[in-house]
Structure prediction request, 99 residues.
Amino acid sequence: LVSNNGTQTGITFPIGFQFGIPIDNKVTVNASFDIPFYVTFGDFGNFNMPLLFGGGVEYMIEPNLDLTFKLKLGPNIGFGTFGSTNLALYALFGVAYRF
Prediction:
């Protein structure tokens, strides 16, 4: 975690659900819901609870090689001294290789 005042220490407790729906042999779409709780320590310590809703798609290029894309967003609810609610956005694009 990085803030304007330097590096901040914390710990994350991720919880999530994902449901995949195969469209055909090469394409799978998914819907997801995540609550990646995290706590920061120190002078600016805080407890945060993002509620992320989203989805994604996977495309199988070869039997062991996939392209993947996920997008999740929602409110990030902060509790504590510096508590506030902000928009949280998670985006991922990658290549997955199956061993």
